[in-house]
Amino acid sequence: MRFKLIVFDMDGVIFEHNNFWMQLHEALGTLHPGLELTEKYLKTDLKKLADEVIGKLWKGKPAEPFFNLIKNAKYNPGAEETFKKISKLGIKICILTGGPIHLAKRAQEELKGIEKVHGNELIIKDNKITGEYNWIYEDIDHKGEILKDICKEYNIDPLEAIVVGDNDEDAFKFRVAGRSIAFNSKSKELKKAADFIVESNDLREVLKFIE
Predict the structure, then answer these.
(1) Is it the case that residue 211 has pLDDT exceeding 90?
(2) What is the mean pLDDT of residues 155-178?
(3) Are 201 and 187 in contact (CB under 8 A)?
(4) pLDDT(195) > 70
(5) How far apart are alpha carbons 185 and 189 in whole angstroms?
(6) How confident is the model over 24-49, as a mean pLDDT?
(7) CA 128, CA 149: separation in Å to the nearest integer?
(8) With 0-12 CB in 10 A as exposed, 13-18 as middle and 19+ as buried, what is 201?
(9) Per-residue pLDDT tens digits for 115-141
(10) Among 161, 207, 160, which residue's Cα sits nearest to residue 183?
(11) Phi, psi angle pair for 52, to nearest 5°
């Protein structure tokens, strides 16, 4: 089968860090309550988690730490070369992430061939976190539904899509796509669900399962 689309997760795949929001908790001094809320709501009520964290813990805090993290995030090795090669193959590239849309857009500007980005938006006004947000996921298994929508938009069968991810939630996308690659993942469940596994953090290792 000739694959026509590849969808990348972002945190831990394109960029070195594997959880931007936890980095932001650290930068804003909210790590301990943030961890407690994540443990409590991540797998049961994403809206409640966002309301508690963004609407309460982060509301009114300065946005400078957020933008500093966006600016200073480092790509995994081989990112630029990998995207260039995939683009030359004529395969459409998208990012589908639970991370910030601001960082996904930075990758889109700097790396070749990324046609669309889908991520979560933290609303910033007057250099402060407003407490408002635009979240693309209703729940953690919604990633698979968004992947179906992306394929439909491009008139591509999901079986013609490749997904690259690194965490438990990416398994929902793996079940939809024709090929799945677990990238530098610590998740045993994701590795079980994957067609192929890359143990390195070098994105060029993904190419052997695409070309």
Answers:
(1) no
(2) 93
(3) no
(4) yes
(5) 10
(6) 94
(7) 33
(8) middle
(9) 999 999 999 999 999 999 998 876 666
(10) 207
(11) -70, -40
So what's the pLDDT on residue 142?
75
Q: How many domains does the chain have?
A: 1
Mean pLDDT of the chain: 94
For the chain, give the secondary structure using H, E and C. CCCCEEEECCECCCECCCCHHHHHHHHHCCHHHHHHHHHHHCCCCHHHHHHHHHHHHCCCCECHHHHHHHHHCCECCCHHHHHHHHHHCCCEEEEEEEEEHHHHHHHHHHCCCEEEEEEEEEEEECCEEEEEEECCCCCCCHHHHHHHHHHHHCCCCHHHEEEEECCHHHHHHHCCCCEEEEECCCCHHHHHHCCEEECCCCHHHHHHHCC
Q: What is the pLDDT of residue 2?
A: 87
- Give the pLDDT score at 141: 67
CATH number at 11 reads 3.40.50.1000
Please tell me the pTM assigned to this model: 0.94
Domain span holding position 119: 5-209
